[in-house]
Specification:
Layout: H1 9-15, E1 16-18, H2 29-35, E2 38-43, H3 49-58, E3 63-67, H4 77-96, E4 103-107, H5 113-121, E5 130-133, H6 138-155, E6 160-165, H7 168-171, H8 173-189, E7 197-199, H9 201-206, H10 222-235, E8 245-250, H11 267-271, H12 275-283, H13 286-298, E9 304-306, H14 312-319, H15 323-333, E10 342-344, E11 351-353, H16 354-371, E12 373-374, H17 380-387
Parallel strand pairs: 2-3, 2-9, 3-4, 4-5, 5-6, 6-7, 7-8, 8-9
Antiparallel strand pairs: 1-12, 10-11
Helix pairs in contact: 5-6, 6-8, 8-10, 13-14, 14-17, 15-16
Length: 390
């Protein structure tokens, strides 16, 4: 699989200076954690789940979470588990027939489900990349990680965990640091099993009875922004101790009425004769999503939890490295710059300071590998237009 693999090769050649790399579920963890992109969630009870997965993979989705937790009722969990076993058997047959599948994860409710599901999936566990652990804390999380390690050993299949950080202890100021320190101990102990950390902002909001409006981002809700900042501060460092932290879910896919102006400038769309695309994005609340993705990246997050297929391409389009970013990162990482110093960018519009900007450059080059580098004259509008159907 590869990002933008669903669009024609000649279109990719026009868009990309460096095309996104190909990867598989067996690729190195460092690459996969960056490549997750827009992770699409789906309830595990969907009767045509295999159809949905194959369809979304063909439209550009590279990672999905099949949810047995908050997206289904308590009484539906047994049916959801049975459905997953059936649908994985269907998917295995489709893969043998040549269908390409995304990275698949199951979001469980408790640790005991992990070995049970792996046993029931049998040989079809080969289609599974791992599990998502809800409401992760040190005390609650260790059993999940132990169960994951045991299931991996019994199945012979490499399996990853993705803890979701969403408990009230992380929201409350008096318990936040202790909670983050405990999470850091837990995930560091099982570092090779943790693919990424996910933020559960909806649960954070529920602790205070909040819900952000479609013309506001998570960063406009200050109490939420403070949690994101502290999670990145303690768990997302670039010194080798950090993890990939993914962006929060965007809840909206249509806006009936607006109070504020749209958050998309018209000039980039006019230049590409894509005014109708801008109108469609605004109608479906995508301007707020695009702004939040930009703020996610500015705050050290990569990838995003998605609950609607229309959110996928915007996440991926804004994850593509611009030609200017790529040029700067290349200059900073040149071997002859090892001693440091300051240089003017090739675009002659900024200062590149070699030592302070090195970690940024390394992260940018990893993102360039998985999402590609746009051609010099290609902007986000063209990437969106190429990826969004119709």
């Amino acid at each position: 699989m590869r990002h933008f693999g669903h669009i024609a090769p000649e279109v990719r050649q026009r868009l990309f200076h460096q095309e996104p790399c190909a990867f598989t579920a067996d690729s190195p963890a460092r690459l996969l954690s960056a490549a997750l992109g827009a992770t699409l969630y789906s309830p595990a009870t969907r009767p045509r789940l295999a159809d949905d997965i194959v369809k979304q993979a063909a439209l550009g989705v590279v990672s999905m979470v099949l949810c047995l937790e908050d997206s289904i009722g308590d009484e539906d969990v047994p049916a959801g588990e049975e459905n997953l076993v059936r649908q994985f058997a269907d998917l295995a047959a489709r893969e043998r027939a040549g269908a390409e599948l995304p990275l698949l994860f199951i979001r469980v409710r408790d640790a005991e489900q992990i070995p049970d599901l792996v046993r029931r999936l049998g040989g079809n566990v080969s289609l599974l990349s791992g599990f998502v652990f809800p409401k992760f804390t040190e005390e609650r999380g260790i059993p999940f990680l132990q169960a994951l390690e045991g299931a991996e050993a019994r199945s012979g299949r490499r399996l990853f965990g993705m803890p979701v950080l969403e408990t009230p202890e992380l929201m409350y100021r008096e318990t936040r640091v202790d909670a983050l320190e405990g999470i850091a101990r837990a995930v560091d102990k099982y570092r090779d099993k943790v693919l990424a950390l996910r933020l559960g902002v909806t649960d954070f909001c529920s602790s205070y009875g909040l819900r952000r409006a479609p013309d506001m981002t998570a960063y406009d809700v200050q109490i939420i922004a403070s949690v994101i900042a502290d999670v990145v501060n303690m768990l997302g460092r670039a010194d080798g101790t950090g993890f990939t932290v993914t962006g929060p879910v965007w809840e909206y896919f249509r806006v009936p009425e607006r109070m504020f102006k749209p958050m998309l400038r018209s000039s980039p769309f006019l230049a590409e004769q894509a005014v109708e695309l801008r109108d469609r994005l605004i109608e479906h609340a995508m301007d707020g999503l695009l702004r939040e993705i930009s703020l996610d990246q500015a705050n050290g997050l990569l990838g995003k939890t998605c609950i609607h297929p229309s959110h996928v391409i915007p996440v991926h389009a804004l994850s593509v490295v611009s030609h200017e970013e790529f040029s700067d990162a290349q200059d900073i990482l040149r071997p002859e710059r090892g001693g440091g110093g300051v240089l003017r960018s090739a675009y002659t519009n900024k200062m590149n300071e070699v030592k302070p900007h090195r970690a940024w450059a390394e992260r940018t080059m990893l993102r360039a590998e998985v999402f590609g580098v746009a051609n010099e004259d290609v902007g986000f509008v063209e990437l969106l237009a190429a990826g969004i159907p119709g």
